[in-house]
Amino acid sequence: MTTASYYASAKDQYASIGVDTEAALEILATIPISVHCWQGDDVGGFESDAGLTGGGILATGNYPGRARTIDELRRDLALVYSLVPGRHRLNLHASYLDHAGKTVDRDAIVEEHFQSWVAWARQLDIGLDFNPTFFSHPLANDGFTLSHPDKSIRQFWIEHGKRCRRIGAFFGRELGSTCVTNIWIPDGLKDTPADRLSPRERLTESLDAIFEEPIDPSHNLDAVECKLFGLGSESYVVGSHEFYLGYAIKNQLALCLDAGHFHPTESIADKLSSILLYVPRLLLHASRGVRWDSDHVILLNDELQAIAREVVVGKYLDRIHVGLDYFDASINRLAAWAIGVRNIQRALLIALLEPTEKLIRLELKADYTSRLALFESIKSLPFGAVWNYFCETRDAPTDDA
Ligand code: RNT
Ligand code: ZN
């Protein structure tokens, strides 16, 4: 049997429960995944050869082949894009600038340092997203950046944030595709703080200063990302969930939910429909927490499927930006990327193939038994045949290939 004939039979099976596979694939093809550049070089960036130096995150493993130059990273990414169906995006960090041999500090970066990324993205016909880099820097060594007690240090990071928004707008304008610029800072403390409030007050002020400059939202959208704890910030994180949820609601910004940034058994899936009542947009960092690490390669597990289901069933595809955020240096880095993109796409496809209206009808009739039976029986349907057909018709390898 061929991929096409497996698909024909799967299509019939789905049709018999009222699901149109063609419609599902059409929608799937419109969902870009923002591929995080930092999986390719263990979050090192190209400012210097120092690599990732602290800031609450850590890449572990010694798999050979880490991208050492911008050119190597771009070639790796191009290969990854060829291994996944559909057209996607690239999520860049400020530390991946192209400084042409000159040292440029974070408070001095400008559009020009990202011109070659824009040219490359244009060639590939992909959009760019962006992140200021508030870690791997001598001024991030005290555990505080935007919330640092020293005003001049705060000022340095505010300047970085402001410049990053302008660079994000430059991406959006040049590529004709809105850029999401996401702020995550590592600020926090290893041990019990004496003062939990003041750093949060200072963070509010710093963020207000960064977001002061009006920027056309069709070019750049601002997002803020919380965390529960990090390496070296186990006892206190300034930018907690409550902090950023409040800040995003008050300022109508996008909130970034990283799946690995909550309590180990806490799922973000149930948060979407609540938060989206109050904030305009969400950015998803698809990730997988394992014990103390929040950044393992995403699996096609219950958690990922629950998140994807909420995105699809809530009809949030125009309000949720889907991105990846993990870094594994113990396996082939290109495979880590490709497996992750394909997994979030497969999770979205499973959701798109759900007979949701039927399930809701049963729920409204209080027929919870039939709802449970249907939820369980659709798990046996051949979504893999639909997925492989999607891959094959969009120039990407099928799963077994
Ligand atoms: C860290 C955050 C953040 C980073 C990237 C590199 O815990 O998840 O998103 O992973 O900025
Ligand atoms: Zn993240």
Automatic annotation (TrEMBL):
Its cofactor is Mn(2+). Its main location: cytoplasm. It catalyses: L-rhamnopyranose = L-rhamnulose. InterPro entries: L-rhamnose_isomerase, Rhamnose_isomerase, Xyl_isomerase-like_sf. Its EC number is 5.3.1.14. Pathway: Carbohydrate degradation; L-rhamnose degradation; glycerone phosphate from L-rhamnose: step 1/3. Keywords: Cytoplasm, Isomerase, Manganese, Metal-binding, Rhamnose metabolism. Mn(2+) binds at H261, D293, D295. It is found in: Cytoplasm. GO terms for biological process: L-lyxose metabolic process; rhamnose catabolic process. GO terms for molecular function: L-rhamnose isomerase activity; manganese ion binding. The keyword Cell inner membrane does not apply. One of its GO terms (cellular component) is cytoplasm. Binds 1 Mn(2+) ion per subunit. Pfam families: RhaA. HAMAP family: RhaA (MF_00541). Catalyzes the interconversion of L-rhamnose and L-rhamnulose. Belongs to the rhamnose isomerase family. PANTHER family: L-RHAMNOSE ISOMERASE (PTHR30268:SF0). This is L-rhamnose isomerase. It comes from uncultured Verrucomicrobiota bacterium. The gene is rhaA.
